[in-house]
Each structure stands twice: as structure tokens, then as C-alpha cells.
Specification:
340 residues; alpha+beta; 8 helices; globular
């Protein structure tokens, strides 16, 4: 277990925001986590668990303890001839895990390649890209209950998964459960998920036949596309997609489509999903700056730290964008990033 006082969190959030916490503790096993929980609960100071910091915006110093998992290890268990259960430690870097699954011939996570963060966060955020979500393959999530140190297992149906949502984000239990392991159900046969039109168009542009597509090839293409659209955190601070794509009722969509016939849209279980990036771009924000914070020139959905931006700078930019999008389209954008 590693413990630091007055710790700078700049390397633990992909925005690269300079913020400090009173204590920073990194544990490498469930046993170490259980050891430190009683003192945290009894201390009457705030504490929180973070992953890779790819979905966080620190708006001030944190006055308590930040926990970070270094739980590693991957185990596999055959589930018949075709499927396999793969359990990964919450502290494993997500894209390293995806690469591991493909090396071992376990398929299903290819579309989620190169998403920043860690395995534990994949189950909290229900990360998604190119027509796939983590929830499509999560079998169960193992947690420690911070109130008593007990182990609990949430099966997929208990996780309340929806677009960028899980039970672990709900107000009633937020912060109570600390994820230690996530178990995915994967396949031994590659079944490409190509429902996302942009991905199909990219394959066509590259003259890649879908009936000859391999999992490694699909992963390489997705990584190349993501790199072309999103900044590398080591070069420009960001939290990836800052806003969630709004889902609107069918009637709202039809009214907007009458005004904007070329507006991108996608079917959703509760309505029609619109492109937040397109909405922001239509308001003229792509590539623009508000002080040291700005909108990425290649993808309007990404807010960036051009250097020296504070959390307050990013908040001011996000609120200004929300105001402009609402005034133009009557749609309220919701941040995907969590403000701390």
C-alpha cells in the first residue's frame, strides 16, 4: 500500500488539472482495501475512489483522501465451448485489458479499444463506442461495501445499465461500493459489431470487406480513428467526450429535423439520440477558446486544456456551450465528466 500526503493529482486526471488532495492511497489487493476502510469511515473526512481520472474534472483541491486501485490480475473460466468468463482487476488499464483479450482469442470488446481509463471505471460508466457498450458483455461486478468491508457481487441485471449509467452512479449508493473486479463474458468466435454507420463507412473507405475483417484489424482501425479525432492526454489535456449525446422524444426530433434535415441521429430505446458534437459545432464552438480552455479543433465534443487551465475555466466553458446549445436548439446538454 502506498500513501502520500498533500498529493498533486495532475497525473491522475487526463485534463491535467493541478489539484491536490490531503491524502492519496493506492492499494493493491482487496485485503489492503479492507484494512484502510475503517479508518476512513471513522475519520469524518471526505474520501473517494478514482480510476484513471479520464472522466473527472477537479474544480478545487480535494480536502480528504483519494483512493486508487492497483488491483491487477486476470483469470479466465470456460463457459461451454464458445464462451469464456474473464475476470480482471479493477486497476488494470482498460486498453491493456482489451489487447489481452484479443491476444488470447477472446472477442467482444474490440469496439471499445483505446478508451482511456481502467477496468473498474468501465463498469461504473458503462463505457461505449461504435455501437458497443461495456454492459453488452459484463457478467458481474465484484465490490467491497465500504460500510462494513463485506464483498458483494452485482450481476448484470442488478447494475441498472443504461446509456453512460449504472447503479454505481445513482445517488442512493454513490461511493458506497468500491469495485475490485469485473467479469466479462466473451466469445471464442469473432462476431464483428458494425451497427455504427461511421464505422461501416470507414471500412468501406479503406476497402475492407466485412466478411474478411479480423478482430485485430478492427481494433487497429478503431485506434487509428480515435487517434485522428481525439487528443492524446500526454499532449493536450482532456476528458474525451465531455458531454453525453442527448436523447430526445420522437416529436422533438421531428421538429428539429424539419429545421435541420442533415442533423445526425440514431435510434435509442427511449427516443432518438442526437450528436452533441454536431450541436456544439453548429453553435460555432469547434476550435474556439475561452481563455486557456477550449474546444478541440477536430472534435467539438471534446473540451481541452490548452495549458494552465483550472477546473473553473473548464466549467465556465462548458456552461457557456450549454447556454448556446439550449438557446439554438432547446436541448440541455449534460456533462459526461464528473465535477469534483
Amino acid at each position: 500500500m502506498l500513501t502520500y500526503d498533500n498529493f498533486n493529482l495532475q497525473q491522475h486526471n487526463t485534463f491535467g488539472i493541478t489539484a491536490r488532495c490531503k491524502h492519496f492511497v493506492e492499494y493493491s489487493s482487496t485485503e489492503e482495501l479492507r484494512e484502510l476502510l475503517p479508518s476512513l469511515v471513522a475519520n469524518n473526512e471526505p474520501w473517494m475512489q478514482i480510476g484513471g481520472g479520464s472522466n473527472l474534472l477537479f474544480t478545487a483541491d480535494y480536502p480528504g483522501t483519494i483512493l486508487h486501485s492497483a488491483i491487477n490480475g486476470i483469470e479466465e473460466k470456460a463457459l461451454g465451448d464458445e464462451d469464456v468468463l474473464v475476470t480482471a482487476g479493477a486497476g488494470i488499464r482498460w486498453d491493456d485489458f482489451v489487447a489481452w483479450t484479443l491476444r488470447h482469442g477472446f472477442y467482444g470488446l474490440e469496439n471499445l479499444s483505446y478508451i482511456p481509463g481502467e477496468v473498474g471505471a468501465s463498469a461504473v460508466q458503462n463505457i461505449g463506442a461504435y455501437g458497443s457498450e461495456a454492459a453488452d458483455h459484463i457478467e458481474r461486478v465484484t465490490v467491497i461495501d465500504s460500510t462494513d468491508g463485506s464483498t458483494k457481487t452485482f450481476h448484470r441485471e442488478e447494475c441498472h445499465y443504461a446509456y453512460r449509467h449504472s447503479i454505481f452512479k445513482e445517488e442512493a449508493v454513490r461511493g458506497r461500493y468500491i469495485i475490485t473486479h469485473v467479469t466479462y463474458c466473451l466469445h471464442r468466435t469473432f462476431r464483428p459489431v458494425l451497427v455504427y454507420a461511421g464505422l461501416r463507412n470507414e471500412l468501406e473507405r479503406r476497402s475492407v470487406r466485412t466478411d474478411e475483417l479480423t478482430a485485430d484489424q478492427l481494433r487497429r482501425i478503431i485506434i487509428e480513428v480515435r487517434r485522428a479525432k481525439l487528443p492524446e492526454p500526454s499532449e493536450i489535456g482532456s476528458a474525451g467526450s465531455f458531454f453525453m449525446n442527448p436523447i430526445v422524444p420522437q416529436e422533438t426530433f421531428e421538429n428539429l429535423q424539419a429545421l435541420y434535415p442533415n442533423m445526425p441521429h440514431y435510434p435509442a430505446p427511449t427516443g432518438v439520440k442526437l450528436s452533441a458534437g454536431w450541436l456544439i459545432d453548429q453553435c460555432g464552438w469547434k476550435g474556439k477558446r475561452l481563455g486557456p480552455a477550449g474546444v478541440y479543433a477536430l472534435q467539438a465534443l471534446v473540451l481541452v486544456n490548452h495549458g494552465g487551465a483550472t477546473g473553473a475555466d473548464i466549467v465556465r466553458l462548458s456552461e457557456t456551450i450549454q447556454h448556446d446549445v439550449f438557446n439554438k436548439f432547446g436541448i440541455q446538454l449534460r456533462p459526461e465528466a464528473i465535477f469534483i
